[in-house]
Design a protein that fits this description.
By secondary structure, the protein is of the alpha+beta class. It has 14 helices and 36 strands. The chain has two domains: about 190 residues, Distorted Sandwich (Beta-galactosidase, Chain A, domain 5), CATH 2.70.98.40; about 475 residues, Alpha/alpha barrel (Glycosyltransferase). The chain has an eight-stranded antiparallel sheet, with no helix packed on it. Strands 1-2-3-4 form a four-stranded antiparallel sheet. Strands 5-10-15-14 form a four-stranded antiparallel sheet, with no helix packed on it. The protein is globular and about 80 Å long. This is Amylo-alpha-1,6-glucosidase.
């Protein structure tokens, strides 16, 4: 039997992150040379092993927890040491903290014994500099040979990266067999009730990295929240800590900050993910949106290149230091890859929404030529067959076969489970395109630039085409299809994609009400959030990546659309699903999790390869907070609408520190749903 090379699981691992560095280890604190465990820096595994032993024995793990926004704290016992009594008298606290260019560990050995304690403490290390795509595919790499220099120092080098470990007071063993498995060793001699602290530090020099950690504090506010449902407070605190750790900038442009997509696979610039996360974060300020828009504008397409998917006006999908290749499935993406059908519209919509939240005109105006280029891409390149609908197809044979947010190869399925054939016309992308045309026209008018009428006409025509082409009969009444296939046949499965149409203007009020009804059926909403595919569809599986699982950001986006459109009960159901899932995941929301029925499984089942933390999953909490307060500003128009989700069912909520036009505002919603806002800019 041929043994499969499988993507490693990571749902039980404990992560720390301070982008571009992240680390994953087991629940006891060990980083073992297997699977996806290790320390990563900008797409390379810079440490593949860090195993702690006392007297050549592993500690018994007792507890783990957070240590600030970038750290983890592990507690272990050495019960063979100290007093011969039932109570343990020697414990080791292992504090691991990610830094922008590496990692630190502090080992606190504490004895409450009445006798002295002597022990040897060691940390076995390894480095393979494996590219992230090799790790993701389950591939094996050889450990590199370490060199020694100054006392207490180890160094590895390769692929333009230099990795250095320093351990004050430690003996370094790196000869012979230990050349590829070097050891840091300390002799510990504690008096009765004594303690000591041992430290080691990892530093990475990586001049070829395409992303760096930006200086300074986060660009967004950190609001003070009181809420009857305290799960919302705990989720927001954890999410903002995670987002702090995911901040990145391009090498050479450290002032323009964006959010890396997620740990460990996608800690880099992703057009779609970074744009959605910045859009969700607008209630906390527009600076993150401005940085994200500028970074992507600098890399906006200027030419036709089938190899990379680039086209004039198109927004980038993904940026890596080198090609990203998964040989088992034939995927091979160039370092700068444009294979996305939706990022360009999302760029336009983020610019518009940031303007509505008060992004200054002097920041908007330099981006207007990029807006016009993006709109031209929608009109000239996004519709190659000229039928007025946006579509995609991978012409290279080694790019992403699906180029919407559900980008796995089996994501677009008919109700009977069969796969759709490209070119594919996704439902939600038509919504994004309609919204971008309307929003682009508004910006062009506001800043005195020509062409707005063309885009309003484009949007109006798209409404008719969508209504004619996408609506099909389903078990619960009429429904928008997931997509159209190569032959323009409706892909008739019921999916969460249709929830993204809410608020885009593509649907009328009755159609939005029907979509809200479809999304609240048990087939879609019986889990801890919104399933990506109806349980009635043949392709459904609760642990399918895009055909039955629940994605945190997807649920948040649909929840926000439902709340804004006034479908309160539907939005409340999804909010409860997210908050219940948050409890189960210690308030660090994963990228996705299982779509099992809550009546059958009383806690969400982890998706075993899910990124965690992940930018748009964490940012979805801010979208939930916005829905709870119901704050919808239009700074250029001089208006603010209040339509809170909080109230009788959700409970009271008060938020101090939401930002409108860079002004902190206070929103209070009482238990009756009565909302007030104060300190609005004038």
């Amino acid at each position: 039997m041929i043994e499969r090379q499988l993507q490693p699981l990571l749902h039980e691992l404990v992560g720390v992150v301070f982008a571009p560095t992240s680390a994953l280890g087991d629940a006891t604190g060990q980083i073992r040379p297997s699977g996806v465990q290790g320390v990563f820096h900008a797409d390379a595994r810079v440490l593949s092993r860090a195993e702690l032993r006392v007297d050549e024995r592993e500690l018994e793990g007792l507890a783990r927890g957070d240590d600030g926004p970038h750290g983890a704290h592990f507690v272990g016992l050495a019960r063979w040491l100290g007093d011969p009594a039932p109570d343990p008298t020697v414990r080791v606290d292992r504090l691991r903290r990610a830094t922008r260019n590496g990692l630190t560990e502090e080992l606190r050995i504490v004895s409450t014994a009445t006798i002295g304690v002597r022990a040897s403490v060691s940390v076995d290390l390894g480095c393979d500099l494996a590219p992230i795509e090799v790790v993701k595919s389950g591939g094996a790499t050889d450990a590199l040979t370490a060199t020694t220099g100054q006392p207490g120092t180890l160094t590895w080098a390769g692929s333009g990266i230099t990795v250095t470990v320093t351990a004050p007071g430690a003996d370094v063993l790196a000869d012979g067999e230990r050349a590829t498995a070097p050891r840091l060793a300390w002799a510990v001699d504690l008096p009765p009730a004594g303690e000591t602290v041992l430290r080691w530090q990892l530093t990475v020099d990586d001049p070829r990295a395409v992303v760096v950690g930006p200086a300074g504090e986060p660009e967004w506010s950190r609001p003070e929240v009181t809420a009857d449902d305290r799960r919302l407070i705990r989720l927001l605190d954890r999410s903002l800590d995670d987002l702090r750790g995911l901040r990145l900038a391009e090498t050479g442009a450290p002032g323009d900050v964006f959010l890396g997509a997620g740990v460990p696979w996608f800690l880099t610039l992703f057009g779609r993910d970074s744009l959605w996360a910045a859009r969700m974060m607008l209630p906390l300020g527009t600076d993150l949106a401005a940085g994200t828009l500028r970074v992507l504008a600098r890399r906006q397409g200027t030419r036709i290149d089938p190899t990379t998917g680039e086209a004039p006006g198109k927004i980038l999908h993904e940026l890596r230091r080198h090609a990203f290749a998964l040989p088992d499935n034939g995927l091979r993406l160039p370092p700068a890859y444009y294979g996305t059908v939706d990022a360009t519209m999302l760029w336009v919509n983020l610019l518009h929404d940031a303007w509505r939240w008060g992004m200054p005109a002097e920041q908007v105006e330099p981006l207007l030529p990029h807006l016009e280029a993006a709109l031209r891409w929608i009109g000239e390149h996004a519709d190659p067959d000229g039928d007025g609908l946006v579509e995609y197809v991978d012409t290279t044979g080694h790019g992403l076969s699906n180029q919407g947010w559900k980008d796995s190869g089996d994501a677009v399925r008919f109700h009977d489970g069969s796969l759709a054939t490209a070119p594919i016309v996704l439902a939600e992308v038509q919504g994004y395109a309609h919204e971008a045309a309307v929003n682009g026209a508004a910006l062009l008018d506001a800043f005195g630039r020509p062409g707005a009428d063309r885009w309003r006409e484009h949007a109006a025509a798209l409404v008719g085409r969508f209504r004619k082409s996408f609506w099909v009969d389903g078990r619960h009444g009429p429904q928008p299809a997931l997509a159209l296939d190569r032959d323009k046949r409706p892909v008739d499965s019921l999916t969460s994609n249709i929830g993204h149409l809410l608020g885009t203007g593509l649907l009328d009020r009755d159609e939005e009400a029907q979509v809200a009804h479809l999304l609240t059926t048990d087939t879609m909403a019986a889990g801890f959030g919104l399933r990506t595919m109806s349980s009635d569809d043949a392709g459904f599986s609760p642990l399918s990546y895009h055909c039955g699982s629940i994605w945190t950001h997807d649920t948040a986006i649909v929840l926000g659309g439902l709340a804004r459109a006034g479908h309160r009960e539907a939005a409340l159901g999804l909010a409860d699903g997210l908050l219940s899932a948050a409890e189960a995941f210690d308030y660090r929301m994963p990228e996705l999790y299982g779509g099992d029925d809550r009546a059958q499984v009383n806690r969400p089942v982890p998706y075993p390869a899910s990124c965690r933390p992940q930018a748009w999953a964490a940012a979805g909490t801010v979208l939930l907070l916005q829905a709870a307060t119901g704050l919808y500003p239009d700074v250029p128009g001089g208006t603010v609408r209040l339509a809170p989700l909080a109230g009788a069912e959700f409970g009271a909520v008060a938020v101090d520190g939401l930002r409108v036009a860079d002004t902190p505002v206070h929103v209070t919603v009482d238990r009756t749903g009565e909302a007030t806002v104060s300190n609005l800019p004038t």
